[in-house]
Fold this protein.
Amino acid sequence: MIKLMIKVCVFIYFVGVGLHLTMQYAKADEYTTATTAHIITQTVTKGDIDHKKVLTAELERLIHRMAIDMTFVMQKHLPNILEGIAAEIREDADRIYKESQTN
């Protein structure tokens, strides 16, 4: 009876280790592959796919990604943008002052 319990425990251990090693989470760069594979699987099995809903979700995902990228670009280039605006204001103020002195 003890040998049977040991064998069952060893079997459960190996099954657990095997599942742990083989079951991995999907990585973020595999999103397109996973979505495409799911759509193909549903098409082959004649599943009902709401293409409008899929495209809407993809568009929302792209817009979200673009908004995040725009915030990073703005954060990176905002000092240069503000410096350019400040330089234009200084030039305009200097031009207006010089024109007032010559008239």
